[in-house]
Amino acid sequence: MARFIKRNWMWLVLTATIAVAGPLLARSSGETARQRSLDTLTEIMDLVQKQSPEPPAPRQLTHATIQGMLHTLDPHSNYMDESEFRLLREEQKGSFFGIGAIIQQHDQGIAIISPMKGGPAERLGVRSGDIIKEIDGTSTEGMTSNAALQKLRGEKGTIVELAVQRTGIAEFLRFSIPRAEVPTNSVYYSFMLNPTTGFILIKDFGETTAEEFERAVATLKKLGMKQLILDLRGNGGGVLDAAIGICRQLLGPDQLIVSQKGRDGRDENQTRTSKGAQLDPFPLVVLINRGSASASEIVTGAVQDHDRGLVVGQTSWGKGLVQSVLPINRSRGLALTTARYYTPSGRSIQRDYTHGLDDYYNPEDEKDAKPQGPAFKTDLGRTVYGGGGINPDYPMPTIRFNEFMVDLRFRHQAFFRFAVHEKEHFGVKPGQHADPVVLARFRTWAQEQKLTISDKDWEANLPTMQEQISIELQNVAFGIEAGFKIQCEKDPVILKALEVLPEAEALLQKKQLLQRAVPATVATLR
């Protein structure tokens, strides 16, 4: 936190001015106090611009001042400039205009991980492994993937000029790619894990998510799905209506999905399924981790509280503050916290943020942590806990790479680069795993690339390297879904979910018996 203060002393001075204005306004019955506060703010901004050795641009100063004010309220109230607001709307609507490629920051530039099937980049010959060296004449050296993404997106039909470096070709390849609509489907993966188990991964919640989920479930049923694993790991949330739409497909009739209460705890707003809704009786397991937040937690909390399924993974993020997005002059936006979310049992989703933003944004590893919040009961009487985030029914440890694997995979992108080399020289078959022959070629290639791998590191990390190479071979040859299917084969969280599906089925049957018994009891009483 000290580092934050040092870097942002100017903004904290301005923020303090605004924060002090609150009580002042409360004591005033007119405009005098408000005007005095605004005058003070204007005077400080003027002094900063006149006296600072490197005066910031007025737009930069205004943006930072607004953000400082909002962050005194809570961690999630946020001001969005034109580009940030545009990206938010694109993500919510489920499409944008770009070249149609998944990219990643690379030490040599911006790497093409996978062109999207049928997208502009693929049609014009861009390949996995190509390194974007220039975008519209600007070098990508030191450019982040987010900055590159901003440059690659634009108006429909406009041209983006790329200079690409391809292995084995000395000169840059140049492409003039017309931007086209690229769907950003929320349902990222949807396939069968085995003959009876469907798998759906939702990466975020946008305006089309509920419809995408409904189509995915229908398709999987045609393929023989009898039970479902719903993966919400890393899903940071999004549009509330999308989460509600999915809950209405999973829950039974007239069941509470989520409650919203204003800052004073009053003005409660409840959202329920319709009284005529029909429960779709397939066993369900939901996967979550620390990256699962907001709308993901609403879906997970409703499933858990109503005993609709089981939850496996790590405790979710704990974002239960409701932001209303208020447009400003149509091109900018204000995400202002206006309420809190509560699960059907009454649990608050929001994690404590009163101990500083460093603790909030960088929570400690909770692999051995036990729930600390108040206890609540599910429909069937199981105990669940509030106090921030959703605690899984089956906690799983967080799997992390050791330093050797971090160095190979992230710093050197060794597995991705080798997969590109392997595809070009030896070819890749669908579903192919890295066998001993491929592993031997990898070690030779690594030596040629001056990557040091000792015999000790090789033996200790061989299974993990084999898995990562297998994943990347499928990524570069057949797209990232093919690589993800390889990853699923040894994913401990997915394996645990498969293990507990019979328990999820038993829970569902018990819940159905209870629901059938309640109307009969009511009829008898009448």
Automatic annotation (TrEMBL):
Renumbered to this chain, the signal peptide range is none
An example GO CC term for this entry is: outer membrane-bounded periplasmic space
Q: Does the keyword section mention Protease?
A: yes
| InterPro entries noted in UniProt | ClpP/crotonase-like_dom_sf (IPR029045), PDZ (IPR001478), PDZ_sf (IPR036034), Peptidase_S41A (IPR004447), Tail-specific_protease (IPR005151)
Pfam families, per database record = PDZ, Peptidase_S41
| UniProt keyword annotation of Protease present | yes
Q: Provide any one GO MF term from the record.
A: serine-type peptidase activity
Please state every residue range assigned to the domain named PDZ: 84-167
Output one GO BP term.
Answer: signal transduction
Q: Which UniProt keywords apply?
A: Hydrolase, Protease, Serine protease
Q: Which family does it belong to?
A: Belongs to the peptidase S41A family.
* Name this polypeptide is given: S41 family peptidase
Q: From what organism does this protein derive?
A: Candidatus Geothrix odensensis
